Amino acid sequence: MRIYNYLARDLQQYGFTVRKIIARYDEGPRILVNSIPKSGTNLLTRCLYLDGSLHRRMKRTIFQIGRKKLRIYIGRLKSNQFLVAHLHYSEEYERLLKEYGIKNILMIRDPRDILLSKLVYIKNDRGHYLFDYVKRLNDTELLNLLLNGDDIVIGLHDEIERFLQWTNSKDCLVVKYEELVGENGGGDYITQREAVDRIYKYIGKKLRSNELNYIARKLYSAASRTFNKGKIGNWAHNVDAEQAEYITNSLTNVAEVLGYK
Predict the structure, then answer these.
(1) Quick one: which of 42, 24, 25 has its CA closest to 33?
(2) Domains of the chain, start order
(3) pTM of the shown model
(4) What is the pLDDT of residues 130-171, one digit of tens each?
């Protein structure tokens, strides 16, 4: 049953349903789903592919690439198709997206929850490029490494800083994880529904009330391979008071820019 659910999800996500194949030939938006890693990328992509016409391009998540390669990728985007990325801000990226008329959405999250999610992900994913590098560290040591960085690992504060300028771009829609996750993730349904509505209006699609309700109700899912618990504020339940204060102080600057206290 689980394999069937994964298959059904991927057929829908990558556009291999009759309705989505037909929609490839209709007029529609071309979208970049960008996010700070572990901010809820899969939540945002799910919000899009639950629509009957939108689908993800058959391309792995892209990271930092040159201008020419990004031009190729976005130039190949079809109508009603989106590309998933973790792209730091650059003026060249911003100009290219505007030139090609790409709808740019940035997903953000409380940096403290990002930190915990990164820790769990790296520690448990044997395929992660850092797994062997950190496997001898205990949780406190790994947390400090992810927070502060070293010659191999970029610290979380510095990593988030590289995305911040997107939040000042008038052509970028910023979406908070906490707005989109809904009741099952510790948020609320009304805020979630409003976030879904805002996303679809930004990409130029008007959803009927029943369509909005359907997407909001179906959004929260543990089906992703990278899913942790997905709960707002979960970080605070996994560290002691001293660690909590240290983490908060270390991330205060970037957190405030993103709108978190």
Answers:
(1) 42
(2) 2-258 (3.40.50.300)
(3) 0.90
(4) 999 998 999 999 999 999 999 999 999 999 999 999 999 999
